[in-house]
Amino acid sequence: MRRPVIAGNWKMYKTQAETRAYFAALAPLVAGSTHCDIVVAPPFTALAAAVEAAKGTSISIAAQNMHWETEGAFTGEISAGMLLEAGCRAVIIAHSERRQFFGETDERANKKVKAALAAGLTPLLCVGESLAEREGKKTEEVLERQFRGGVAALTSAEFSRIILAYEPVWAIGTGRTATPEMAAEAHQFLRQLAAAAFTPERADMLRILYGGSVKPDNIKGLMAQVEIDGALVGGASLKAEAFASIVNF
Ligand code: PGA
């Protein structure tokens, strides 16, 4: 039985003051929500405020990106150890916006996954095809390349600690959600890849989240699919009430 995960990715939104107000609103709404893991990923500058505000709740805090080295002359970068010290438990890796706008590659994603695991963080590795790739019938090819690249050379024990997020790029921030069936099909394909790369048992335990225009009114249909183990929510995670109703699907 895979425990669901509902994760909110704030992207480049919210100041520290907004973060405190958000958690004050969210905490009581999810106080009884023991059926899933709840994760919120604020921008770096709001991490400490979020960690402080989430104390005493079951909400864990994640970062949206990291560098793979432990320290060094890498202006503007943050290491896994720094995130851990700030109170993060997880980190989003290779979000499609990082791939699209900031040159994230599968090779770098793999280094980040390894560094996150070594530091004790849970990597939330994102994969997903663009609209042109889907229309060009390249979805499986893209997912296979991103999955294999991202988890390359992980041991089976390391692999058991990652979370995968399937986020079709054409569904992110567009209001166009993949149908639950489309998402489930991609998840099933990713699970087959996991079984081939590791073991069927590991694949069976892998939690795969769907992301892309998840909203309070479509989460139920998505979660009804056995292949879908949770959601990575962007826009709808910015309002505490909307995120809480997704958590409480
Ligand atoms: P969205 O973003 O929910 O706003 O589509 C999802 C994501 O990018 O993680």
Please explain how this structure is put together.
The protein is α/β, with parallel strands linked by helices. It has a single domain, classed as Alpha-Beta Barrel (TIM Barrel), CATH 3.20.20.70. 43% of the residues lie in helices and 15% in strands. Strands 1-2-3-4-5-6-7-8 form an eight-stranded parallel beta barrel, surrounded by five helices. Strand 3 (59-63), helix 3 and strand 4 form a beta-alpha-beta unit. Helix 1 (16-29) packs parallel to helix 2, helix 1 runs parallel beside helix 12 (240-247) and helix 5 crosses helix 7 (139-151). The radius of gyration is 17 Å and the shape is globular. The two termini are 18 Å apart. The mean pLDDT is 97. Residues 9, 167, 172-173, 211-214, 232-236 line the site of 2-phosphoglycolic acid (PGA).
Summary tags:
8 strands, 249 residues, 12 helices, binds 2-phosphoglycolic acid, alpha/beta, 15% strand, eight-stranded parallel β-barrel, TIM Barrel
List bound small molecules: 2-phosphoglycolic acid
Number of continuous helical runs:
12
Query: Could you say how many structural domains there are in total?
Result: 1
The CATH class label is Alpha Beta
The CATH architecture term is: Alpha-Beta Barrel
Largest sheet: 8 strands, parallel, barrel
Strand content: 15-25%
Average pLDDT confidence is 97
Q: CATH topology, what is it called?
A: TIM Barrel
Q: What is the CA-atom radius of gyration, in angstroms?
A: 17 Å
Shape: globular
Biggest sheet: strand arrangement: 1-2-3-4-5-6-7-8
Order of helices and strands: EHEHEHEHHEHHHEHHEHEH
- The secondary-structure class comes to alpha/beta
The number of strands is 8
